[in-house]
Amino acid sequence: MAPTETARRNHDELFAGQLPGLTASDPELVEIFTNFAFDETLRDSNLDARTRVMVQLASLIASQAMGEYRALLGAALTIGVTAVEVKEIVYQAVPYVGMAKVSDFLHTTNAILTEHGVQLPLPGQSTTATADRAAKGLAVQKLIAGPERVEALRAAAAGDEMHFQEYLAANCFGDFLTRGGMDLPTRELLTLAMLVSLGGCEPQVKGHVQGNLNVGNDRARMLSVITALLPYIGYPRTLNALRVLNEAAPAVPTV
User: Fold this and answer.
1) Three-class SS of the chain
2) Taking the complete model, does pTM exceed 0.70, yes or no?
3) Can you say whether residue 61 is alpha, beta or left, with left for phi > 0 and alpha for psi between -120 and 50 degrees?
4) How many other C-beta atoms are found inside a 10 Å radius of the C-beta of residue 18?
5) 169-197 pLDDT, tens per residue?
6) Quick one: CA dihedral 59, 76, 103, 143, positive or negative?
7) What is the residue extent of each domain of the chain?
8) Domain spanning 44-121+134-248 has what CATH number?
9) 241/211 Cα distance (integer angstroms)
10) Contact 76, 170 (CB under 8 A)
11) At what angle do helices 133-145 and 202-214 cross, to 10 degrees?
12) Which of 42, 58, 70, 176 could form a disulfide with 190 if both were Cys (CB 3.0 to 4.6 A apart)?
């Protein structure tokens, strides 16, 4: 089963003139994966190439897939994903994946950007300061999650756990989700991609399905993200994500 013409064309868009690294040793698997990831799933995923690659990069960080990340990052830069966008993907992974897991990806990102002639550090994208990060973060949190949901979470927090709610507002949302470099709907797609790929985060996936709806990403767009991630995260995480999506944003019945 050779790669289809469509698979070859889509692969070459990202990796012009490059054969997959396992072509010589595992040609059958390469053909299966290439046809699935670069033809079959793309037919059912209505994302432009830049958005698709960005959510896949976020997924690969969450999956701790350094080899695939390294290869895809180089491809992302060739199709117009900017250095600022790349850095923002990595930065946004910190509150969701944790610095311990993101650190190596940041070092790799810096090395690849430097190889591509990017001067570091990049212009800062922070829009908050110490005095207003909590207030601005809370405002973005309410925009994404809904004010009633946020107030309910804060009201339900035990007294000795309230600092976690404050961290969510000031750190997760204030330090990261308020940053420039990309719009909020794109950031919510990145968050969804990371949570789906981490596995075991179904309550958070459900919250961010609603968050995506609140910032303008409809069910079809989220379904396209999940479809584009399937070749990289496998069926269990994908099916779990679909179950949560169907609970939070059910398909409209066809007549």
Assistant:
1) CCCCHHHHHHHHHHCCCCCCCCCCCCHHHHHHHHHHHHHHHHHCCCCCHHHHHHHHHHHHHHCCCHHHHHHHHHHHHHCCCCHHHHHHHHHHHHHHHCHHHHHHHHHHHHHHHHHCCCCCCCCCCCCCCCCCHHHHHHHHHHHHHCHHHHHHHHHHCCHHHHHHHHHHHHHHHHHHHCCCCCCHHHHHHHHHHHHHHHCCCHHHHHHHHHHHHHCCCCHHHHHHHHHHHHHHHCHHHHHHHHHHHHHHCCCCCCC
2) yes
3) alpha
4) 13
5) 999 999 999 999 999 999 999 999 999 99
6) negative
7) 44-121+134-248
8) 1.20.1290.10
9) 15
10) no
11) 90
12) 58
Residue 98 one-letter amino acid: G
For residues 170 and 129, give the distance between their C-alpha atoms in angstroms, rounded to a whole number: 10
- Using alpha carbons only, give the angle 9, 2, 37 rounded to the nearest 5 degrees: 55
Predicted local distance difference test score (pLDDT) of residue 83: 98
User: What is the dihedral sign for C-alpha 15, 19, 21, 23?
Assistant: positive
